[in-house]
Amino acid sequence: MTATLVSTDLPFPLLVRGKVRDVYDLGDALLMVATDRVSAFDVVMPDPIPRKGEVLTLISAWWFARTADLVPNHVLSIDPDAIAARYPALAESRGQWARRSMLVRKLRPFPVECVVRGYLSGSAWKEYRLTGTLAGEPLAEGLRESGRLDPPVFSPATKAETGHDENIPFARMREIVGAEPAERLKAASLALYERGRDVAAKAGIIIADTKFEFGTDTDGSIRVMDEVLTPDSSRFWPADSYQAGRGQPSLDKQPLRDWLEELERAGAWNKTPPGPALPPEVVAETSRRYQDAFRRITGMALDDFPLTDPEAT
Hints:
By secondary structure, this protein is an alpha+beta fold. The protein is 32% helix and 23% strand. The protein has eight helices and 17 strands. Strand 15 and strand 16 (222-225) form a beta hairpin. It is globular and about 60 Å long. 39% of the residues are buried.
């Protein structure tokens, strides 16, 4: 199976080592390296998923290129040749970061997750089933699990350093970021989701929900950042098997989640660190799901992605 990358060691200051990404400060820009680490239930697993980092970086680049007319983004380049030419100190470590890295602008992040839900699933369904609300705000009566929300619902959340993000009312988001920025982030998020939903529908994929992150540039302009419409930031469902009223199979790490849920039911793991060693078949199927989502969305195999011009495909 393809070699994996669990951690990086590059000749620049490490700014952040998150669950998946290692972010380096290059001085006038950042290098975001998507490793093959995988987390589930907020626990990073000990075994990586082959090619996951490539999928996350390149599918984001594909979407950034197709939404730049709606919302500016933070991408400067994903081309390894261009990145190495601009920062020669990275040349020797190219094997670690090529094809899985984005050179991006430095932005001042907004301290909120901008979630858009087009279907009622996950934590939103759990809350609705109990109280008829989402983040404390009422929804229509009679909605079903996985049912379509029309229009889509903007549902912000706080960013959690550890554990789960917390859904918050829009009024609370306005208090956190300011009234005018909150309205702009809401409009940008809905526009991005609707573009993604329409494009994915042509590929036979339902984007049930997704989350965006935004930041401000030095001139005060708002840009979308981090990742966009990936299998990690979104819930992808195959349209041909969709049926409201039940949970849906997902084109992401669902095989991993299912296996871990079985472990919990058997009393072999309690969803706290450390994560259990993963069986080879779970690793292989999860990798296949990520690559299948990439192929279905972009219409190409991972190895065929044009690093010099993501907009060309």
